[in-house]
Description:
Elements: H1 16-21, E1 32-38, E2 41-46, H2 47-61, H3 66-93, E3 97-104, E4 107-113, H4 118-147, H5 161-167, H6 171-193, H7 200-213, H8 215-239, H9 243-269, H10 283-306, H11 313-327
Parallel strand pairs: 2-3
Antiparallel strand pairs: 1-2, 3-4
Helix pairs in contact: 2-3, 3-4, 3-6, 4-6, 4-7, 6-7, 7-8, 8-9
Amino acid sequence: xxxxxxxxxxxxxxxxxxxxxxxxxxxxxxxxxxxxxxxxxxxxxxxxxxxxxxxxxxxxxxxxxxxxxxxxxxxxxxxxxxxxxxxxxxxxxxxxxxxxxxxxxxxxxxxxxxxxxxxxxxxxxxxxxxxxxxxxxxxxxxxxxxxxxxxxxxxxxxxxxxxxxxxxxxxxxxxxxxxxxxxxxxxxxxxxxxxxxxxxxxxxxxxxxxxxxxxxxxxxxxxxxxxxxxxxxxxxxxxxxxxxxxxxxxxxxxxxxxxxxxxxxxxxxxxxxxxxxxxxxxxxxxxxxxxxxxxxxxxxxxxxxxxxxxxxxxxxxxxxxxxxxxxxx
Length: 329
């Protein structure tokens, strides 16, 4: 998602508070509250995230799971922030720039601009999940050491109360560990198991395809895979009555649709996609090209010794193919 979009807001001067909350009223992505700036990265929280937290807490206030909901929301905020910092620092490590993080209800957005190379893009993408991968065994083992029950570590993710009942009796420490472990596992699973934008699995797929097929062709395949994944996820969400899955499916489907639309329109207004690193030839292709060059050299030496009349049909076909290729550049 581009961080260079600007919208004409019109109107006259606005109060300072409104300018902070709605820097670009015509762009809903900017409706956020700046929290702090560290390491040259500004962190903002979207107004919808604040509304989401309030609705969740109000909804849980009358039930018995208020503590669980509150702890999950708190750890969600922290873990999403760490996840996005992983993207930012990985991007800087490969020579790119990253200066903005936006936290919102369905995760976070790190505004990263890595070098236009598939490997740099892949490293930037994997920087976020790497944080969750490192945290997973730490939180899992700590939770097991406290509860002495694997049931608190491995449970049905759609009914976390099963694990919560095993961790809650161990006081605030057990409750915090469970909430952090559960939220971290969900972030890792959703980001790396669903191959669609804006999930990290979708970006990982694109980087891998980019290596062998080029940026444009890889993106074309990725968005179509993503649309299919969004449809499957949406059906599962409806069948399981899981609002979160349905929301992710809608978000992913729309993101992939607009990526596809931009890809189709790009040649009409921009050559920007041509600036990306071209596909990297595979070792098999390199070996085949080398063998072809050796064969052409052998045929040319045969012509010099014996003349064109002694070439076999296969040799003539190989020579004609090489002639056409050189003629076409």
